[in-house]
């Protein structure tokens, strides 16, 4: 799907939906950043056995707040 098609779809929405679209775009940007950060995380299993790196649940809240 092209940016032009998405832009046409967004422009066809009522104005009261724009906040929700903006929130979803912020979520996608956050998710993209988290995926980028996850690729940088090293495998620490040899040091900590079966413990996995658990993402901080507050990161999403901070990013949405600081937006």
Oligomer: single chain
What characteristic shape results from the CA principal axes? elongated
Could you list the spans in which at least 5 consecutive residues all have pLDDT below 50? none
Rg is: 17 Å
Helix content percent band: 55-70%
Order of helices and strands: HHHH
Rounded mean pLDDT is: 81
For the sheet with most strands, the description reads: none
Structural class from helices and strands?
mainly alpha
**What is the β-strand count?**
0
Could you give the distance between the termini?
A: 26 Å
What's the number of helices?
Answer: 4
Question: Approximately what portion of the residues adopt beta-strand conformation?
Answer: under 5%
Describe the structure.
The structure is a single chain. With 67 residues, the chain is mainly α. The chain has a domain at 8-30 and 56-67. The protein has 4 helices and no strands. It has helices spanning 3-12, 18-40, 45-48, 58-66. The longest helix is centred in the middle third of the chain and has 23 residues, at 18-40.
